[in-house]
């Protein structure tokens, strides 16, 4: 018996064990996480460039470490969205619409920057945590793993930043 040749149409429908509706719901939640993460990346990079004062060197380096990690994270989140078969949002207007917090426009003191970063870190955690039950219900272990790693990192960052304000 001859084997059927695989064609492009045979693989155009995603068959990863997660129904399309669930993949779409998860991707919507990941899009919010992407928007929050990218907004936090942008805010942290801004503060890295503009921080002043006696803590300049330590904050400048800390912010650089955090925005560098976020740069990698946004790619990972976007690629997970694409793996689920959905388009990843990729414009400032979409990120602004999806993000759960806004980036301050005004010049801030170092302590105010830290306070905004604590709130941003915690916003990312809340966004990830809100998606967890949706991914869990769909038995989507890769997304659950991604969410767990993001929550752990952002909770730790929030703790470290908050300690600077004590």
From TrEMBL:
GO terms, molecular function: ferric iron binding; oxidoreductase activity, acting on metal ions
| Pfam families on file | Ferritin
Organism ancestry: Bacteria, Pseudomonadati, Pseudomonadota, Gammaproteobacteria, Chromatiales
Looking at the record, the residues that make up the Ferritin/DPS domain are 28-165
Q: Which protein is depicted? A: DNA starvation/stationary phase protection protein
The similarity annotation says:
Belongs to the Dps family.
Q: Which domain of life is it from?
A: Bacteria
């Amino acid at each position: 018996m001859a084997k059927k040749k695989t064609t492009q149409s045979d693989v155009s429908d995603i068959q990863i064990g997660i129904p399309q509706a669930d993949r779409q719901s998860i991707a919507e939640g990941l899009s919010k996480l992407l928007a929050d993460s990218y907004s936090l990346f942008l805010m942290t990079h801004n503060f890295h460039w503009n921080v002043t004062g006696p803590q300049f060197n330590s904050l400048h380096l800390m912010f650089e470490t955090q925005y560098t990690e976020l740069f990698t994270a946004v790619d990972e989140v976007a690629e997970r969205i694409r793996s689920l078969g959905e388009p990843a949002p990729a414009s400032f207007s979409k990120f602004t619409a999806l993000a759960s917090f806004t980036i301050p426009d005004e010049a801030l003191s170092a302590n105010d920057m830290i306070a905004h970063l604590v709130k941003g870190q915690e916003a990312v955690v809340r966004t990830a945590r809100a998606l967890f039950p949706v991914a869990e219900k769909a038995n989507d272990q890769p997304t659950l793993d991604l969410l767990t790693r993001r929550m752990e990192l952002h909770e730790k960052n929030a703790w470290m930043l908050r300690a600077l304000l004590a």
